[in-house]
UniProtKB/TrEMBL annotation:
InterPro entries (alphabetical): ARM-type_fold (IPR016024), Gua_nucleotide_exch_fac_Ric8 (IPR019318)
GO biological process: G protein-coupled receptor signaling pathway
A Gene Ontology cellular-component term: cytoplasm
Protein name: Guanine nucleotide exchange factor synembryn-like protein
Length: 496
């Protein structure tokens, strides 16, 4: 072993001395492939030392060459020793992460059949390492993912690995037994691989339909992370994976809406959403919670209704997300509730995709009915969405007093404004109960202030007419037509 590995403490060399040691290791391993000059312990020690040196690409150039990657790949996929294979795979993973050009070098070697074959494994270590290798090759290479799915059973291997994790989640060992940390790392890497494959080979997503029940099982049975980071992996990865899959497929429906508990998936998604809205803000909402909103919207939209136009899933989601009495007593977006926290982000400039997902979700909750949408969230929130999507505001939607439950209570649709709030009059702009509105007593306006306010309102009404969103009559114009317009004196003194 001494003639190949460095004499200094493992991985401690720097600069030219490190380059010399790395060159010696790579050359020695290449020679071993042809003449088998190393003992198994020597070979594994050399790979282990190479892994440590390869964590820093400076003065490690021989690792990242075509010859270096080929040497490592042959040890990874041709060696009968599992230890040698894993040690080599770790070096390859580091190399592909640090030097993107090595990914194409790996793909050009043509080891796809062996890679996919090795992914069929009972080892958490192998699942993690092989999944990471394939995952990294999905970026910036010519890898043929459809070919891996059609000819080398890549989808079957991923589904098989997810099945193992689902079984472990649904039948945990008795007591508090510490699991191998590689198990969680393997699950995370498999989910990341699934997301990328279904993203870049979108025409083959149906091949992954059997993965949906396993994803759902893990989602509903896995212990929740701390409330400060509710979407830590694997939950963020599980939700991302569901985004790309066909949730209306025959294999998806029974798992998303199980006959023994229709609401299990929706309940878990709502639980994660509630925790997330308390834990994340702004850009974190954009990155972490947007996919959750999209999946929840899809679960709502695709919920089976059979002969009844309503379903327990839709009823549950509306009951949790539509404004309640508490929300409408304070004004929409002002209470400390899940609906209010969502509405407060409706105009979040730092989370554009998140706010778009929220508005689309609430439009879906409103049965895609513009009038009901305005009742549910108030015209103040609804107007921007309707204008951007070129949806006309129904006649009478802005009439006051507006009564709740226009299309909801007692109807087949059941998409009323709130939950158990009766038919109390609501301000159509703010969504607040008219009986709960409070106005500050302001000092009497001077005549100049009244004139300025009248001019400002005149301009606003003219601009609103030009948008074509709603048909309005300028009140100043109406007053003039009816002969109620009076020219005021220039000052209060003149009037006196």
């Amino acid at each position: 072993m001494a003639h190949l590995t460095g004499s200094a403490s493992l991985g401690s060399l720097r600069g030219p001395a490190k380059l010399k040691a790395v060159t010696k290791l790579v050359d020695g391993l290449a020679e071993d492939l042809e003449s088998a000059t190393l003992q198994p312990q020597e070979r594994d020690a050399a790979l282990d030392e190479l892994k440590i040196y390869g964590r820093d690409p400076s003065y490690s150039d021989p690792i990242f060459t075509k010859e270096g990657i080929e040497t490592l790949t042959r040890f990874a996929f041709d060696s009968p020793s599992e230890t040698t294979s894993r040690n080599s795979l770790r070096v390859i993973c580091n190399a592909m992460l640090l030097k993107p050009e090595t990914r194409q070098i790996f793909v050009d070697l043509g080891y796809e059949p062996k890679v996919c074959s090795k992914l069929k494994t009972d080892s958490w270590d192998d699942e993690f390492l092989i999944s990471r290798v394939v995952f990294l090759t999905t970026y910036g290479t010519s890898i043929d993912l459809p070919n891996l799915i059609e000819q080398h059973q890549l989808a079957d291997s991923i589904i098989q690995n997810l099945s193992k994790h689902a079984t472990r989640c649904s039948t945990p060992p008795a007591g508090k037994i510490s699991r191998d940390p590689m198990e969680k790392m393997a699950l995370d890497e498999t989910l990341k691989l699934l997301f990328n494959v279904t993203r870049y080979a979108s025409d083959h997503t149906t091949s992954f339909d059997p993965a949906i029940p396993h994803i759902v099982t893990i989602l509903c049975n896995h212990d929740l992370p701390p409330s400060t980071t509710p979407l830590d992996p694997p939950f963020s990865l599980l939700i991302n994976a569901l985004m790309n899959l066909n949730l209306v497929s025959p294999s998806a429906q029974p798992s998303l809406y199980p006959s023994d508990n229709d609401n299990s998936v929706a309940t878990r998604l709502l639980e994660l959403l509630d925790l997330s809205m308390k834990a994340y803000t702004d850009t974190a909402l954009e990155q972490n919670v947007t996919p959750l909103i999209c999946v929840l919207s899809s679960v709502y939209e695709n919920a089976p209704s059979s002969s009844d136009p309503e379903s327990p899933v839709r009823t549950l989601i509306r009951s949790q997300l539509l404004p309640s009495e508490t929300d409408r007593s304070l004004g929409l977006g002002k209470a400390d509730t899940l609906p209010s926290r969502l509405l407060r982000n409706w105009t979040n400039a730092l989370a554009p995709e998140f706010r778009k997902a929220i508005s689309h979700l609430y439009f879906e909750l409103s049965g895609k009915d513009a009038g009901q949408f305005i009742e549910n969230v108030g015209y103040g929130y609804a107007s921007g969405f309707l204008f951007q999507n070129k949806i006309a505001v129904p006649e009478g939607a802005m009439q006051q007093p507006q009564q709740q439950g226009r299309a909801g209570e007692g109807s087949g649709l059941g998409v009323g404004v709130g939950v158990g709030v009766g038919r109390r009059a609501v301000n159509p702009i703010t969504g607040q109960f008219l009986s709960e509105e409070r106005f500050e007593e302001l000092p009497e306006m001077t005549m100049e202030e009244k004139e300025r306010e009248a001019e400002r309102l005149f301009v606003l009404f003219e601009r609103l007419k030009q948008t074509g969103v709603v048909s309005v009559q300028n009140p100043v114009e109406t007053a003039m037509q009816e002969g109620r317009f009076e020219e005021l004196p220039d000052s209060d003194d003149e009037k006196k």
